[in-house]
Amino acid sequence: MNRTGLSRLVNPQTVALIGVLIFNWLLFPGFFNVTWQDGRFFGSVIDVINRGAPVAILAIGMTAVIATKGVDLSVGAVMAVAGAVAATFVESGQPLAVVVGAALLIGLVCGLWNGLLVAIFDIQPIIATLVLMVAGRGIAQLITEGSIVTFTDPGLIFIGTGSLAGIPMAAVIAAALLLLVHLLVRKTALGLFIEAVGVNRSAATYAGLRSKALLIAIYAFSGLCAAIAGIIAAADIRGADANNAGLWLELDAILAVVIGGTSLLGGRFSIPLSVLGAVIIQAMNTGILVSGFRPEFNLIVKAGVIILILVIQSPKAAMFFSFNKTSVRKGQTAS
Amino acid sequence: MPEPEIVLQAKGVCKSFAGIPALNDVEIALHAGEVHALLGENGAGKSTLIKILTGAYRPDSGEIFLDGHPVKPRDTLHAQTLGIGTVYQEVNLLPNMTVSENLFVGRQPTRFGLVDKKSMDSQSREILKKYGLELDVRADLGSYSVAVQQIVAIARAVELSGKVLVLDEPTASLDRHEVDALFDVVRGLKARGMAIVFITHFLDQVFELADQVTVLRNGSLVSSQTIPKLSRTDVVRMMLGKDVITYGSAIAGGERATGDVLVKFENFGLNGKVRPFGLEIRKGEVVGVAGLLGSGRTEIARLMFGIDTADVGQATVDGKRVSLRHSSDAISLGFGFCPEDRKADGILGDLSVRENIIIALQGSLGWHRALNNDEQSEIAEKFIEALDIRAASTVMPVKFLSGGNQQKVILARWLATDPRFLILDEPTRGIDVGAHAEIVRMINRLRDDGLALVVISSELDEIVAYSSRVVVMRDREMVAELRGDLISPATIVQAIDAQPESIPA
User: Fold this and answer.
1) DSSP string computed for B305-361
2) What is the average pLDDT across B473-495?
């Protein structure tokens, strides 16, 4: 069972990503061209990681939620709320730290609310988070007073459009968050606790885990991730659009997690693979865009690729493909 | 008295699920005009047998005879047309449809191809009159009490079938008055020559209504006898195990040297769950908890472990008052708890054997002090060896282990926390004979090592074998504590069975 580093890289997600990238390259030979301009990289590949960053950040929080057998439908709306808070605060002349802090705090509060409904009141996650999915956009509109609040603060704009060592800021933030969270769940026992609660919440409680506190913390974390994505999205367009910011992105985030191989039934999860899932989705979006396909094909092609990935991951397919492998392994333990 | 004719008979019925036998060579014979009580603890095979008789399951082997002819009910609908009807505990009718629609759904009388409501309603009134019910058949069924719904369900089943009626815990949610009304209906059907199977947990009702009693235990037929030949004690004994007599004199647990009091519960209880009880557990002793299912035995374990929070009373450990508001409180005091329902509350099925073993220890260490891979493996392998857990590898999901090995994994989970006080709820349920004996040996060894243990079990011979004291639960109340020579299956059965009147309030 000790898989080497190399064989670990051979999984449906990496194969799919490589497949999508090759397909993009065939359709659009300039896909991998990267140029250096104005102190930063440009090119389709850079575009993929830049555009994919918000969904990737959402997927990091969503993975933790889904691993506990939950789901967070509110993240798109929370993005709008956080964006609205950031925009109105920066327009009222607050310093950048306060602006970002306030936006993150509102995301955290939204997540705490979800966690409270799920963990304390035992409301099904899909319903509990639906509340904020609907109400969130209303809240965002109240904050922006119904209009699109635009801003010109260079600091805030930098978060969405700036770059660090030539890499887009959004991608840098997503990568940093991925690294931080991955280390946090895998170098501490948090990952095990999340999986235990997701596999069997009752048994986890009997084993002495504070399941309720854990659930609340995870939904709060998902809210925080949504707020980060919301700040990036607002900074990107230099304005807070309560109606459209983060619209339907919760579905992309869930899809990214599922493509990443985390089961909606909870339990085992992988945050890096979820982020890879988000990159796959964005690679398809960008590929279809640059290859000059009619946009009508977008959704159909996307759906086709997703079905393919999911079928490859299904237990039936796994049984079919790994039949030889397991019979060998059995032979080894018997000897 | 001439022997009434046999209406329905099952012979040599065997059924297993995924290789685990649920029924083993069971037979039952239902006579016309007889109320036949089918008894047994949960998991004894009652519902499997009923589902086979009513066509919901097919037997692996064995035959069913209706009026002397072999039949093979394909499904419940087919069984109904053969004459076998069932009324379940949860009324399986449609509360949002009218009474008459419920009686006739699927076979509405028609006129010119349309449902003839008028004739349906008048026929419904006719039918229900036979059951002593006069009500508005056009009102929604849901507007009537459960008892009325129950009788409507019976009427429907009788109209559809007419030979055999199976009543699966029909009185579970009825009050005394409603039970009487229901019994009148059943007696009426009996007088009409129907064979009635009556499943219940209430022994009083068995003796009030039934003519014949069949007891199942662990999927096998224990006995089938007519009521006049049986006493309540006989029935309890048959349900819990008939080995009681053979083990009666073999008490070893009487005078064991025990240590100081470790855990003490005083006036400990939770409104609506368990009446306040007092219990002391000493180091190096096993306190057995006996009682029928639903007697409150699992509830006291949950209270003692902080899964439910007591609303009265206090707990002390080593003489110091402690608060038990969450399982982690109990664990930090050195408590451990193997729950009754291993699958629902015990194992983390998709996680590995190793993770299942270290989870409670890791939980008590906290999230930030993670055991690394080597530490996890070392702990897991130590207990896999000590408890002889048969697993192909420590990283395989625990759900692929057998029941006995899963139970040992949960035991290992608690032993890894180095506990002082262990609560085991039905530690030997549903596991094979070999693992069973090992777990009993393990309990003895832990006691000799100075642990305090509370063991809940339905296996009286087992409780007698390892307990230094036995407390008996009945109706969510601790009703007796047996010590020394008083511990025997016979005295336990007596205490379980004793009429409430004979116990001082």
Assistant:
1) TTSS--SEEEEEETTEEE--SSHHHHHHTTEEEE-S-IIIII--TTSBHHHHHHHHH
2) 85
Q: Which two tokens stand for residue A68?
A: 């506990």
Locate the chain A residue with the closest alpha carbon to B354.
A192
Residue A288 three-state SS: helix
The amino acid at residue B235 is: V
Window from B299-308, B386-395, B433-442 with minimum mean pLDDT: B433-442
The sign of the torsion formed by the CA atoms of A313, A316, A320, A325 equals positive
Question: Which residue of A3, A188, A190, A192 is the best one to mutate when testing the B interface, meaning the one whose CB has the most B CBs within 10 A?
Answer: A192
Q: Which residues are within 8 A (CB) of B463 and not within 5 positions of it... i.e. 6 or more apart?
A: B288, B289, B290, B455, B457, B470, B492
* Residues 6 or more apart whose Cβ sits within 8 Å of residue B247: B460, B461, B464, B465, B488, B489
Average pLDDT value for chain B: 84
Residue owning tokens 């009083």: B204
What is the nearest CA distance from A268 to chain B, expressed in angstroms?
8
Pairing between β-strand B477-483 and β-strand B469-474 as defined by DSSP bridges: antiparallel
Q: Sort residue B141 into left (φ over 0), alpha (ψ -120 to 50) or beta.
A: alpha
| Kind and range of the H or E run holding A70 | none
The band of B91, judged by pLDDT with boundaries at 50, 70 and 90, is: low
Comparing CB atoms, the residue among A193, A206, A268 nearest residue B327 is A206
**d(Cα B79, Cα B426) in Å, to the nearest integer?**
36
Instruction: For residues B198-208, give the mean pLDDT.
Output: 82
| Separation CA A59–CA A257 (nearest Å) | 6
Return d(Cα A253, Cα B453) in angstroms, integer: 49
Q: What angle do CA A288, A294, A296 make, to 5 degrees?
A: 95
**Element housing B24 (H / E):** strand B20-31
pLDDT digits (tens, 9 = 90+) for B304-340: 999 999 999 999 999 999 999 999 999 999 999 999 8
Q: Which of the four pLDDT bands, split at 50, 70 and 90, describes residue A6?
A: low
DSSP letter at A116 equals: I
Among B349, B366, B367, beta carbon nearest to A200: B349
| Residue ranges with strand state E in chain A | 34-37, 40-43, 149-150, 163-164, 167-168, 239-240
Contact between chains at B360 and A188 (C-beta distance less than 8 A): no
Q: Name the DSSP class of B363.
A: H
Cβ of B368 within 8 Å of Cβ of A188? The answer is: yes
User: Are A206 and B370 inside 8 Å of each other by CB?
Assistant: no
**Cα dist from A312 to A268, A307, B121, whole Å:** 18, 9, 57
Instruction: Find the mean pLDDT for residues B179-192.
Output: 87
DSSP secondary structure string for all residues of A297-319: HHHHHHHHHHHHHHHHHSHHHHH
pLDDT in tens, B450-482: 999 999 988 788 888 889 899 999 888 898 898
Residue A288: half-sphere exposure toward Cβ, Cα within 13 Å = 16
- Angle among Cα B28, B34, B35 to the nearest 5 degrees reads 80
Cα–Cα distance, A138 to A152 (Å, whole number): 25
Task: Give me chain A's average pLDDT, please.
Answer: 88
- Pairwise CA distance, residues B208 & B193, whole Å: 19
Q: What is the pLDDT of residue A82?
A: 97
DSSP state of A335: -
Examine the predicted complex and report whether its ipTM is higher than 0.90: no
Residue labelled with tokens 């028609």: B110
pLDDT band at B83 (very low <50, low <70, confident <90, very high): confident
- The whole-angstrom separation of Cα B464 and Cα B251 is 7
Q: Contact B345/A206, CB-based, under 8 Å?
A: yes
- Residues A288, A301 contacting (CB under 8 angstroms): yes
Measured CA to CA, the distance from residue A57 to residue A275 in angstroms comes to: 8
